[in-house]
Amino acid sequence: MDLGFSAEEIAFRAQVRDFVANNLPPAIREKLVGGHHPSKDDIVTWTRILANKGWGAPHWPVEWGGTGWDAIKLSIFTDEIQRGHAPESLAFGTSMVGPVIATFGTQAQKERFLPRILDLRDWWCQGFSEPGAGSDLAGLRTKAERDGDSWVINGQKTWTTLAQYADWIFVLARTDGNVKKQEGISFFLCDMKTPGVTVRPIQTIDGGHEVNEVFFDNVRIPAENLVGEVNKGWDYAKFLLSNERNGIARVGVSKARLAKVRRLASLAVYGDKPKMDDPVFRMKLAAAEVDLKALEMTQMRVIAASRTAPKGKPNPMSSVLKIKGSELQQTTTELLMDVVGPYALPYQPEQGDRWNEPSVGPDWASTIAPTYFNTRKVSIYGGSNEIQRNIIAKAILGL
Amino acid sequence: MDFDLSDEQKLVADNVARLMKDKYGFEQRKTYAASASGFSEPLWRQYAELGLLGAPFAEEDGGYGGGAVEIMLTQEAFGRALALEPYFASVVLAGGALRHGATPEQRAALIPEIASGELRLALAHMEPQSGWNAFDVRTTAKKGAQDYVIDGEKGLVLNGDSAQKLIVLARVSGKQRDVDGLGLFLVDGDAPGVTRRGYATQDGRRAAEVTLAGALATPLGEPGRAGPAMARVIEDAIAALSAEAVGAMAEAVEMTTDYLKTRKQFGVAIGSFQALQHRAADMVVALEQARSMMYLAAMSSSDPDTAARARAMAAAKAQIGRSAKFIGQQATQLHGGIAMTHEYKLGHLFKRLTMIDMAYGDADHHLAKLGEGESLFD
Q1: Multiple choice CATH, A245-396, 3.30.10.20, 1.20.140.10, 3.40.190.10, 3.30.1490.100
Q2: A58, A59, A86, B49: least surrounded by Cβ within 10 Å?
Q3: ipTM for this prediction
């Protein structure tokens, strides 16, 4: 038993850290440190910097541009990207549809799509959730019907993250309504420019525009854009979701936010002393750090176990990581609220766009309440924490 | 980075698990608890034969060359079974005082006797006023003609009523809470001037209040310089209790799961109710977080960086305390009335978990301490 990292892993961490420090454009870093969302251009710029280095999708098969790093190095890489306040790679491409195409797609699909995901020439979004199919995803009703050499899609998707920038969408659609609901679903790739695709923005409680509704009205796509076999889409979706859960703990994000909490708590002076001198606050901060330390170790245990586990089989321990990781992300935003205090109040969405007017209150204050509101999503998406508890009860406890 | 055990460590884990399975059913435990010493003397000898009592000591001291991982594995199994033998008191606490505080000659003289099971020691370090401050010591040690002479009151001496010898923390100089000026002293349990008032503890064990009035004692290591050694002993104790707590928590989660599957109400197993499933799932989360910190504590006990080691132990104890409270309370609730009965094991797990939280600083104590210092992350 040895919980330390090897000399090689320590050197690797330093290499990634240095790379991020030296190559992430300062304007992007500043924006993310400030709690603002990266723009489309920011994400594309950074993804291409990584892709040039050969780090566009480190976890992919080497023949398609992956690095061959083991699970520990992959987790170190993710941790350093998150801690370094760099934009994360667009998961819909690199972590979701990319591995599905690489595993189940045709050679033509691989050659056509994978290189364009790697350097973000194609921006992908995810067509899974529907108004009537959230936690019960298999209850989806969007339909695809075969017509000659085409499939014709009709229906509606929702919560489609960053669809406003997307070139492509991967879509789960019902192709057989007369079988068990999981057995009549297929997985399609659809160009967003296809006639009949309409995107409508959803404004979220933080004032942002992250998610959308996507409507399909007689959208005709070529038959070659089906992935794998007809009616096997649910299997591919499960494979995709098990990949999505890697890194779901988002330890690096919480580490970065706790560092920010410490920094701002030393700046924020109320009365005659900074928030950091408040022993009750310090105790709450310590409690979050203890939780995060334990979560980091739990993640390491899951990674260590994954080295000997069968590939592609979801580990129910990832549900533990999802629950605790999302709770911690939320706790860290609550600590920021403790720091900002009454100047949580002003609503200044324009501050993110290099607005020339001075901010109301401290210049770091304007993103804190929106971040707190926005982060409530993390226990809802990716399989709500209640769904994760169902998984633990069933798969770990056998209830 | 790996969490794999060596072959020797696997053997320790297998041996102790098998022994607990054969000899530590809850009904068998009741007979051990009812004996005069409050534990099983034959099992103590078996622990010695299996090498458990000598495992954590260096070979040159007469041990078997293991360390924190061996203690962790043993304590985890003992925690599951709620073992009553004075392993923690004699091997972890007093043994730790020898490892960290005694001279090589003293270790070579005493450790083989611990390893063989002949000698049971108790560590008398706390005092009625000291709370969780290990350095708050009023008991004095004064140089006499040959030996030292000890005067003072020691409290909560685990297994202090039956130990043959006591290791006493006493002050040779300095003020009441100074880290400097402390010494560790070996005192015969039946020496003149030693009065022991033994009593039962909440968790079914034994402890003693010890009065020392002019008791003669031999110093271990250099008198006056035992403070840092004592800090190490407490860190080792925290690591060992973390493992014991994880064993007890794992047992509580397992018992609760079994109960949810078998107990029927409204014509169905109560484990089919989602409200109960979700609570059980939260117990799993708390258990896994605690287990992670158990590993961190065991691995950190040999970290040469004093401050980092202290932070890791405080973090571990805080997590263990919070998980133990949550799992103990939830397991009791999910069992319902049966958990409230003395005859059933679960309530005893709950009590032991509660007392582990109260030992060497509860969760809030360690969180407050961590809050005063640097971040856990670089």
Answers
A1: 1.20.140.10
A2: B49
A3: 0.95
